């Protein structure tokens, strides 16, 4: 991908594909009877057309913004990864362990040292657990192995 | 319309626990307003599911969330004035003259005048809301599908027209938001749309996961991806408040005009606090900038926009409560809060839920007083908290988002949905999309479709039905005006500049 690639061109192509998928999907909506003349297909179909027209507009007149992945943008990928992992672990590892993982890695990604990041993780895990289970009375999953 | 509902509301708002919620909301609001990385919607989105699952009653929840919303407009100015970074979007303009004032050693004066004008704007808007909301409800009681359909089109049009450089992205945002809202069971026919046979999607993409994804998750990703510049240290604010009588007098006009502009912009769907404060600033500049002092620390340039920005928060409650049609991202989330508690806003709300509306509006009088007190003597506390580093702040926000979504749904899939929406929201926002069109599309798209189809069902497919009543005709004219006038103005200005250039050629030409 060249550095002079316009962001809006990529967006335009992606949105065109989304619009096509939505249009195909709307024709596939099954229903037996509709009390109104439009039925469930028309509205998403109309929105798909609006999206497609806007996408064509973006392709024709893109803004000057170009694709530039700054080094710090890679940290965003790391953050998404740790979010997905912590969410997946939630019912298995329990609330405190996944929140510790989530918070300490996030803290580290935002520039804290390893040590500080671990403290942030531990504090969040303990304080939020106590606050939510004891004060707000919200049930959060415990760690099944430790049993608490 | 009698004001009985308000007196009853004051009784509820003055209950001890509700006063406490108002104080907490005002404090959180001022704080998140002052923190540039956090906005009111994120804070409200994070606290809503927590309040809901810990069984806080609906009136207390509303009082809390509303206080965060209008409290935010008090907090935003602090960072604008002391650091030259707006704490929230409504406070961008406050930095124009507030920061130069602080540079001249008048930080305390700028903070004081902006707190007072915020209060005036806030209180006047609540008075306006008290008087105007029942009137609007009375008018809206005769609204049918046609009026609602055109009203929402009007909201989308103003949103597009005020969208700035790329209006096409506002249209796209509305359309994409509306598309996401079509997921799930179609209530009129019972058809499943875009559910991919996933039972959890049968009831649609959940509002809580959507809001937390679009605001909290996307926000955190944006902060992380932008090369965070170290925020410079706040300017020290020393000395005594020294606002002369002349200056105070000069602020009266801008404050009153600003409050009015703010209130109107708040009611208008799609306009909101940024436009209100910009408009107020440019009007004050045109009216009063005789010696070129604006932009160099003119106190009037702080007073007007701050009043406008707080006025818009009060005004924006009117259409959300009485029409069920929110005009901004924040009120859209407030609407989501009401729906979560099974309260249906609309013209009937003064009849079906007089206590709730009364308590909410009454609490806004109380809250603005609390905020004034908080923001005058306690300002130092907030200034110190503004410099909390992101590596402490962000992990906690993220954790709160996880807890919020999990506690409502108890499912990993909702958390994944939240993350997916967060990533899409991040990409869209990083490429120049506003968040308001997507959010409003998500909330209003559903209402738009329902009213379109109900309208066509009653008229047997006759499209002229949507043009038949006077109200809808007026709204169609407004849509035309909002869409056509700004480009004409722009074109005429460009033409004038071009002729001016040819009449007086540049020296190098």
From TrEMBL, chain A:
InterPro entries, per the entry: DUF1468
Transmembrane segments: 7-29, 41-60, 72-93, 99-132
Keywords recorded for this protein, A-Z: Membrane, Transmembrane, Transmembrane helix
Keyword set includes Ribonucleoprotein: no
Residue ranges annotated for the DUF1468 domain, each copy included: 10-141
Protein name listed in UniProt: Membrane protein
Organism: Agaricicola taiwanensis
Organism ancestry: Bacteria, Pseudomonadati, Pseudomonadota, Alphaproteobacteria, Rhodobacterales
UniProtKB/TrEMBL annotation, chain B:
UniProt-listed InterPro entries: DUF112_TM
Residue span(s) of domain DUF112: 19-440
Keyword terms of this UniProt record: Membrane, Transmembrane, Transmembrane helix
Sequence intervals crossing the membrane: 20-48, 110-133, 139-156, 168-185, 205-225, 260-283, 323-344, 356-379, 391-410, 417-444, 464-485
KW Membrane (keyword) present: yes
Record keyword Cell membrane present: no
PANTHER family: TRICARBOXYLIC TRANSPORT PROTEIN
Protein name stated in the entry: Tripartite tricarboxylate transporter TctA
Organism: Agaricicola taiwanensis
């Amino acid at each position: 991908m060249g550095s002079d690639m316009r962001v809006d061109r990529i967006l335009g192509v992606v949105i065109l594909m989304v619009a096509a998928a939505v249009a195909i999907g709307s024709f596939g909506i099954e229903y037996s009877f509709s009390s109104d003349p439009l039925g469930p297909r028309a509205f998403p179909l109309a929105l798909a057309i609006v999206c497609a027209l806007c996408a064509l507009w973006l392709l024709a007149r893109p803004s000057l913004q170009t694709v530039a992945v700054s080094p710090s943008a890679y940290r965003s990928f790391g953050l998404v990864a740790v979010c997905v992992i912590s969410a997946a672990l939630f019912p298995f590892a329990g609330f405190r362990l996944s929140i510790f993982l989530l918070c300490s890695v996030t803290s580290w990604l935002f520039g804290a040292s390893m040590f500080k990041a671990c403290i942030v993780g531990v504090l969040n895990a303990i304080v939020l657990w106590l606050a939510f289970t004891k004060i707000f009375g919200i049930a959060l999953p415990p760690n099944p192995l430790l049993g608490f | 319309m009698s004001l009985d509902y308000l007196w009853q509301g004051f009784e509820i708002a003055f209950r001890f626990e509700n006063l406490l919620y108002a104080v907490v909301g005002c404090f959180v609001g001022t704080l998140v307003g002052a923190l540039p990385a956090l906005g009111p919607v994120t804070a409200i989105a994070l606290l809503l599911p927590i309040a809901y699952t810990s069984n806080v009653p609906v009136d207390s929840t509303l009082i809390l969330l509303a206080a965060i919303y209008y409290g935010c407009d008090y907090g935003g100015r602090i960072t604008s004035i002391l650091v030259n970074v707006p704490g929230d979007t409504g406070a961008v303009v406050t930095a124009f003259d507030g920061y130069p004032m602080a540079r001249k050693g008048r930080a305390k004066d700028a903070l004081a005048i902006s707190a007072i004008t915020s209060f005036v704007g806030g209180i006047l808007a609540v008075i306006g809301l008290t008087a105007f909301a029942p009137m609007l409800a009375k008018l809206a009681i005769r609204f049918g599908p046609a009026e609602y359909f055109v009203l929402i089109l009007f909201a989308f049009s103003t949103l597009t027209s005020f969208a700035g450089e790329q209006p096409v992205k506002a249209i796209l945002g509305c359309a994409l938001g509306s598309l996401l809202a079509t997921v799930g069971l179609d209530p009129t026919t019972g058809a499943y749309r875009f559910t991919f046979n996933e039972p959890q999607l049968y009831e649609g993409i959940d509002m809580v996961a959507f809001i937390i994804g679009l605001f909290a998750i996307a926000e955190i990703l944006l902060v992380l991806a932008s090369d965070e510049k170290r925020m410079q240290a706040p300017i020290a604010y020393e000395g005594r408040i020294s606002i002369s009588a002349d200056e105070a007098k000069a602020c009266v006009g801008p404050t009153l005009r600003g409050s009015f502009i703010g209130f109107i912009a708040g009611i208008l769907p799609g306009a909101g606090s940024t436009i209100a404060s910009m408009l107020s600033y440019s009007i004050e500049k045109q009216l009063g900038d005789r010696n070129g002092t604006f932009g160099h620390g003119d106190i009037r340039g702080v007073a007007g926009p701050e009043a406008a920005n707080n006025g818009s928060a009060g005004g924006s409650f009117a259409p959300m409560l009485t029409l069920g049609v929110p005009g901004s991202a924040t009120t859209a989330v407030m609407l989501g809060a009401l729906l979560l508690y099974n309260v249906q806003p609309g013209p009937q709300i003064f009849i079906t839920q007089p206590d709730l509306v009364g308590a909410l509006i009454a609490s806004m009088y109380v809250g603005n007083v609390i905020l004034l007190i908080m923001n005058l003597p306690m300002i130092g506390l907030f200034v110190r908290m503004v410099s909390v580093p992101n590596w402490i702040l962000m992990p906690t926000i993220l954790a709160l988002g996880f807890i919020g979504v999990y506690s409502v749904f108890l499912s990993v899939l909702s958390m994944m949905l939240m993350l997916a929406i967060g990533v899409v929201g991040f990409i869209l926002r990083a490429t120049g999309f506003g968040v308001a069109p997507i959010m409003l599309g998500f909330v209003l798209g559903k209402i738009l479709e329902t009213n379109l189809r109900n309208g066509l069902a009653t008229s047997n497919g006759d499209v002229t039905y949507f043009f038949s009543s006077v109200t809808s005709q007026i709204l169609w004219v407004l849509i035309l005006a909002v869409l056509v006038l700004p480009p004409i103005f722009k074109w005429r200005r460009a033409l004038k500049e071009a002729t001016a250039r040819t009449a007086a050629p540049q020296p190098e030409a």
